[in-house]
Amino acid sequence: MRRALADAGITALAPAVWGSTYLVTTELLPPDRPLLAATVRALPAGLVLLAIGRALPVGIWWWRALALGTLNIGAFFFLLFVAAYHLPGGVAALVGSVQPVVVIVLAAVLLGDRVRTVHVAACAAAAVGVGLLVLRSDAGLDPVGVAAATGAAVCMATGIVLTKRWRRPVGVLLFTGWQLTAGGLVLLPALVLLEGLPGADVVDGDALLGFGYLIVVGSLLGYSVWFRGADRVPALAMSFLGFVSPIVATALGFLVLGQTLTAGQGVGAVVLVAAIVAVQLDTRPTGRRATAPGAPPCAARPKG
Q1: Global pTM?
Q2: Dist. CA 122–CA 279, nearest whole Å
Q3: Which tens digit of pLDDT belongs to each residue from 66-110?
Q4: What is the domain partition of the chain in residue ranges?
Q5: Contact at 8 Å (CB) between 218 and 17?
Q6: Are the CB atoms for 243 and 276 separated by under 8 Å?
């Protein structure tokens, strides 16, 4: 139990970092450039990790790395930034709270996990907690933003379950590099065709600072920690750790932007933390793949 909670705590550092995405996007990045933001966040970090690991996928892992990179990085980043530009952070976070529900369904089908009452109750409590924490009465429901936030949640949920099912065949840094590079390469043609390469008038000092933060902290650090957790934390528990993001986003809004915190937000935070903790404490085996062993060290040839 103690080790499981420690692994969950370390993995939670990733969504804690990602909780700053909305702040960085709205305050530092150029407006209306979601493809630029997504590509710059993914591709440079992936190439750095590939240069360190100096190994490419082998056999079946070529298409698996592409699939995971698209789900976890490429499509997810793009949809996340579209949601950030079209919705208030609270609405995007509330729509994204459907992610654990998708994980429950996919884990039952692909991992053989059993659905328990505590899981369903925790999903409902998390949605209520997110709503109380971040949703404002004047929040708008832009259809494009809602669709993007829903798509991002589905992509991340599918990526979590498939990462658990397939198990990484190499060290965590190289595995992260494969996915960041694949996701970045998927995004690059769309960036060139739909937005065009940025000029000096787009990438100013603030943008460089924001991109640097997202590359180093959000991707290199965040995704390395996240994929390490994929070996040690059950799929549903990982999806609930994602709710650390709106908690951090709300705290940053208070500390950095001077936003006011209400009693309702305090209640929402308590409910959300309770839901996260309840799922982490539910450590009983849930199916044939419930307990994933630690991945082997970096192998010369990945297993198919």
Answers
A1: 0.82
A2: 7
A3: 999 999 999 988 887 788 777 766 667 777 778 888 998 899 889
A4: 2-281
A5: yes
A6: yes
